[in-house]
Amino acid sequence: AEGYTTKEAERKKHEKELEKKGEPVTFPGWDAIEEEMAQEKPKVWLTVRDEAGNVVRKIQGPTKKGFHRVAWDLRHASKSAIRLDQPRREEGQRFFGGDRGLLATPGTYTVTLSKEIDGVETTLSEPIAFEVVPLRKGALEPKPVDVMAAYRERVEDLQRETSALDYLLETSKKKIRALETAVTRAERDLGDLPDRLNQLERELREIDQAVNGSPAKREVGEKTAPTIRQRMRVAFEGISFYGPTPLHQRSLEIATAELNQHKPRLLKIAQEDIPELEKALLEAGAPLIEGQMVLPGEEH
Fold this sequence. Notes:
There is one protein chain. By secondary structure, this protein is of the alpha+beta class. The protein contains seven helices and five strands. It has helices at residues 7-21, 30-38, 145-183, 193-212, 215-220, 228-236, 246-283, and strands at 43-49, 55-61, 107-117, 120-123, 128-132. Mean pLDDT is 89; it is low at 90-97.
């Protein structure tokens, strides 16, 4: 198969050929070097779709010249929230809030080969159909495929929402700690602001315990009351050959209900309470914290 390279690789290949011939190698110029540095590496994609044409997974293949074999692990793309500092990779290993998608249900799928050069994706093949089938017949009768697919979508929705809540919770706790440092550097009286910060920190701790359990009990290996994280793990187990049992369904329902219970309060803390305290600290002459900017008309 044809290989795909970058402008930098092509330049270096040309320079080596000049060296072999004993010819001078000239400097290409800073503009050319910067253009090389800005260029995205070429990519080869294998796109798996279901019978309805929905994209199930995009798998990155090798770009080197030659024949290659690429395997699909029979999983959907992960629906977990993506961190801003997360490495650009297709696959991760974290189970909860990570990049591992759910298993695909048996059925007919297609795969299409394409290349992506400078952000432009070009199809290289017609769709090729294949079947995903169970390896063996189980002892119990499996749920219908449409029932398993509907359950998987509900679990994916929970995975998306819970991982986003988990990251927002972590970011909010970091901001509170930064604001506590800013309190010690304020130039004017802060009134009850330190107490309000302390109250928000307690509320975030309560939400954290609902999602992840008691840190004190986890430290010594003591069991905790079921958390959103634990119930979600149980719900994940329903993505199997047999499909979800009543236990899996109930765990999904409880996890979703508990998430919806804590989500509004966390959103208010992140979107209203913390910005309000940031503004009050700025007015008191405290330093800016990471991600905070002074808008026109707010200078003090």
